[in-house]
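Q:
Just now I want nothing more than another pair of eyes on a protein record. Here is the record:
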Amino acid sequence: PVEKEKISPDSLQNPSDPDATYRKKAGKDHKGYVANIVETIDEKGSIITSYDYDVNTHSDSSFCKETIEKLGKQEKEITIIADGAYSSIENIELADKNNIELITTALIGKLPDEIQSEFELDETTHEIIKCPRGEKPYKTRYYEKTGVYRASFNKKTCEHCPLREKCGAKLQKKSAYVLITAKTIQRASYLKKMSTEKYSVLQKIRNGVEGIPSILRRKYHVDVIPVRGLVRSKIWFSFKIGAINAKKVLKMAAEMAATLYKNIKIRFILTKTGKNHVKLLLAA
């Protein structure tokens, strides 16, 4: 038999469902399809405003990019709160261009130290202007193929610097050097921003996003789809999204009706003829 590692994700997984693909995520094997759900939330409630459905080799980061592109340029800034798998510097930059703030729980890959966000560089001249402590390198070399900057400092400058363990400086016989990229600085800046109190609150809101996938699994059994093929299973999945939204709308309507009922005041007016008339006053 062929080893799992050598099997292509696009290879046939099931003769009865040729569209299904294979993917390994978080150490587990997955076959079939994957969905991305966009839930819009405000002070009045929430509702699913968009969803995507594709083969499960379609990455979360790609879903995020496509969602931002669909939303387009916003007149007023909006915030997208998502899982860490949706995050990338490219997606953050794309969101920023469209007046969208992308907040995720974490970054994927090796994390830089927040102190590296304080490196100042000139991407036009490809020079590092100064390090986090404000020291200017005596030489900067830029490797265009990899996007890596190599900044050389006087050894005495870095040897006893309290930030050396965090900034990534390496000591040599007569000098010290730092290897860093613009992306690393951007990622470090993002991490620094995420550590503030404002963003920790938004990350707590993100935890509620897991509610929709949980409902789809527990109540609508989307892990076991009774049809085959990408198109048919997508249609079946759309019915489940519609059912969740219908329930949300009915719940909101019931709450609005209850609020309206409480605000209705009934006043009896005694006319000259002695007849009682009922007048309804709606309290705004």
